[in-house]
Amino acid sequence: MPPKQAQEAIYIAVIGVGGVGSRFLAQLHYLQKTTYPHLQAHILTRSTRSLTGHPSSSGIDLSNWSSLLSSSTENGLTPAQVQGHLGGRSHNSRCVVIDNTSSQAVAEYYPQLLKAGFSIATPNKKAFSGSQDLWDDILRYSYHPHHRPDAGLVYHESSVGAGMPVISTLRDLVESGDRVKRIEGVVSGSLSFLFNEFMPLSDSASDDAGAKTPWSAHVKKAQELGYTEPDPRDDLSGLDVARKLVILARVAGLKVEGGTDSFPIQSLIPKALQGVESGAEFLARLPESDGEMEDMRKRAKEEGKVVRYVGSVDVEKGKLKVGMEWLDGRSPLAGLRGSANVFGFWTERYGEEPLVVQGAG
Q1: Which residues, other chains included, contact 71 with Cβ-Cβ below 8 Å and sequence gap of 6+?
Q2: In sequence order, what are the residues at sequence separation of 6 or more whose Cβ sits closer than 8 angstroms to the Cβ of residue 124?
Q3: What does pTM read for this prediction?
Q4: Alpha-carbon span 214 to 290, nearest angstrom
Q5: d(Cα 97, Cα 209) in Å, to the nearest integer?
Q6: Among 100, 186, 221, 292, which one has the highest count of C-beta atoms within 10 angstroms of its own C-beta?
């Protein structure tokens, strides 16, 4: 039996090494040790500092990357500099850029990387929910077996639904000839947690106790548990949900020319607190608005309904909407627990009953 040939090295640059980036590097290190030793991290960069491996080496030692980066004297690299450094070490077709940031500037450089043959993997929503022109350019310059065989691949599965197979499921429907008519879901783990706690579907004793807790206390609890951003307004604004809706709409084939500016987004930030400067002050004053949310909870309960924060895309009418919806208990969106997400796809094949993807978001 002939000896197994070693695979050619894949040269990786990681932009953004904070919370998401650190988790990615831990996963990459595990894969290097167990399955894919040819995956080599050659560049790690954040806004102020970077670390580059020696061109002739097998990359940066990921068992010690944090201290190596902390002691590095190299400045942070721009996307163009990352391209230059990485491209000088290997054929571009073996270079991959991992963008763990939410940077608009990095996102806008994707077309240049793809044209040069670099592949991209990213959770950065801004690349795919911003201008329609940027979305079109990313598609135009990414790999196609007939038209652009030398271009790079782009993967952004985790830009919607975290680790759930949401984008891939939707893309498979479209590419297999199905026609998407409507998309609807609870697509924010933080807002799912808040409404499931504030207005649970179950009537168990523990759920009843949770339903008697004021809205502001649930928001504070969600922040303490890490379900929301450190400043909860980032989640309560609804903008994160809106970005995910734009991405799904575009994958389904809908043009969204104005991005998130082109449709209504219901903010959960009370009008009286919209001018508050800090997240700490916002949390301290949020109890002032508990009465409004409590009134809504009581009215919904009287009608036998629960309220959930829902995003929807009417593909046929070209309309997107983000906000609170009153649902009866039979809705697949009503009975979630914890921070679970659920996505429903109504298509020509799945008409009466949607194809549902559900899991931790």
Answers
A1: none
A2: 99, 100, 101, 102, 103, 106, 107, 156, 159
A3: 0.91
A4: 6
A5: 48
A6: 186
Q: Give the gyration radius of the chain's Cα atoms.
A: 23
Beta bridge partners of 310: 323
- CB atoms closer than 10 angstroms to residue 234: 13
Burial of 241 (0-12, 13-18, 19+ CB in 10 A): buried
Do 352 and 204 meet the contact criterion of CB atoms below 8 Å apart? no
Give the HSE-up count for residue 312: Cα atoms under 13 Å, Cβ half-sphere.
16
* 3-state secondary structure labels for all residues of 259-302: HHHHCCECCCCCHHHCCCCCHHHHHHHHHHHHHHHHHHHHHHHH
pLDDT one-digit tens code per residue, 142-160:
999 888 999 999 999 999 9
Distance, in Å, from the CA atom of 241 to the CA atom of 185, rounded to the nearest integer, reads 10
3-class secondary structure, 248: helix
Give dist(CA 205, CA 214) in Å, integer.
17
So which residues are the catalytic ones? Answer: 244
Q: Are 79 and 105 in contact (CB under 8 A)?
A: yes
The type of residue at 327 is L
Identity at 106, one-letter amino acid code: V
Interatomic CA distance for residues 23 and 17, integer angstroms: 9
Contacts of 194 (CB under 8 A, 6+ apart): 218, 219, 222, 227, 228, 309
Which residue, among 188, 168, 302, 196, has the nearest Cα to 235 in the 3D structure?
Answer: 188
d(CA 16, CA 22): 9
257 φ, ψ to 5°?
Answer: -60, -40
User: How many degrees, rounded to 5, is the angle at CA 156 between CA 355 and CA 93?
Assistant: 130
